[in-house]
Structures are given as structure tokens and as C-alpha cells.
Amino acid sequence: MSKHLAPIEVVEALIGPPETVGPIVGLNDKATYLWRRGSGSRDAGDIPAARYMRRLLAHASSKSLGLTAEHLIWGAPAAEIEQILAARGADRPPVAAE
Fold first, then answer.
1. pLDDT at position 89, please?
2. Which residues of 68-77 are buried (b: 16+ CB within 10 A; e: fewer)?
3. What pLDDT sits at residue 59?
4. Model pTM?
5. At what angle do helices 7-14 and 78-88 cross, to 10 degrees?
6. Are 77 and 5 in contact (CB under 8 A)?
7. I need a labelling partner for 20 at 20 to 30 A (CA). Which of 9, 36, 91, 97 fits?
8. How many whole angstroms separate alpha carbon 56 and alpha carbon 36?
9. CB-side exposure of 55: number of CA atoms within 13 Å?
């Protein structure tokens, strides 16, 4: 069975590490590390605001990275993200499976 990735894990797999993601959404390069942990208003791995989701979708769409709105809400199975990366010919390590 494929591991299920949280929304931030999908974003990091398809777009890049927090140092890349933070500036895309208008934050500093370390801010999205905090998204890996839960808070009083969201679960661990959730994207905290719709405006950040829209910015991520716009960026991913402009570069044909394969990110969808569903990924930002529900996450995705690791196998699905591996397929997207394979179709892109992405030169990166595979998403960790458990």
C-alpha cells in the first residue's frame, strides 16, 4: 500500500523544499517548515490559507508541475506523485514510501 502524503508533502515533492515554497507564497524561506506541524486551526501538513493555495496553484500551473487543488486539500498517495514526477521526467529522488 502506498503512503499517503499530506498536502505540504505533495507541494514539496512537486515544487520544492520550504526555501523554494515560502517565497512563492509571499513568505520567508523558512516559514513553510511550520506547516509540517499542526496548530490549533489546522492539522499537520495542511496548507494554512486559501491565498497560499491559489499562489501555489498559479505557480505550478505556469510551470506545468502537476499540482492540483485536490492535492492542496487532501494530499495524495505517494504513488500518484511518483507518476506525476515520472511523467515530468523529474530528476529527483523518489517520494519515500512506508
1. 86
2. beebbeebbb
3. 96
4. 0.89
5. 20
6. yes
7. 97
8. 16
9. 14
Question: Residue ranges of the domains in the chain?
Answer: 4-88
Beta bridge partners of 42: 39
Going 31 to 34 to 39 to 43, the CA torsion angle's sign is positive
User: How far apart, in whole angstroms, are the C-alpha atoms of residue 87 and residue 50?
Assistant: 28
pLDDT digits (tens, 9 = 90+) for 42-78: 999 999 999 999 999 999 999 999 999 999 999 999 9
Residue 14 identity: L
Report the DSSP beta bridge partners of residue 77.
4
Q: What's the angle, vertex CA 87, arms to CA 84 and CA 11, rounded to 5?
A: 30
- Residue 84: phi, psi to the nearest 5? -60, -45
Q: Which residues contact 7 (CB under 8 A, 6 or more apart)?
A: 45, 46, 47, 71, 72, 73, 74, 75
Q: Is 90 helix (H, G, I), strand (E, B) or coil?
A: coil
Are the C-beta atoms of 11 and 47 separated by less than 8 Å? yes
